[in-house]
Write a structure and sequence with these properties.
mainly alpha, 60% helix
Amino acid sequence: MKQSAILVVLVSTCLWAGCASAPPPQDRGRGGSRPERNDAPRRVMAGGMVELLPPDYWWRDEQVTPSVAPSVEQIEALDKVAHDLGAEIDQIRSDMRLVVRDLRSVIESEKPQSTDILAAGQRVRELRNSLFDRELKMLDAERQILSRQQWMALQDALERRRAPRQQQDSTPGDRGGRRGGRGGRWPGSS
């Protein structure tokens, strides 16, 4: 019973974070062409660290860039970081969707074996940890490019952008907000 509860929490956490519902990598702009516009952060991190992570290609977002005012050299450096680390992150995100799907299949099977559930859950954990490491590396690289003042301006701009979305997610009667069921809205999804 404890194992089932833990797996439900694990799958819910992964789904909440967008692992299984994120758009394909080419739609997000990492490692490839630049996105047309930038939605909510799609990076997945545990322990409330999502607030520290700016969205993919935030320096191309017309709502965020004026507050931060990155120089041409900084934009070129940020583009290089996104190119260098983005493809690997996209591949892990893609793999993550597959292993979550596999875990869900095992859990929803007629008579799932504990060993199969635990093995599938272990694959999710390993990829989640790998993704965390890569995204932390990207966060570090982006932070090294910006001054402290620019970093604080970026965090302020992102917080202003998140505020309406957080209010919408917590509105009573909206199918559960962040903790909604399968039909609920997940952060990072459209």
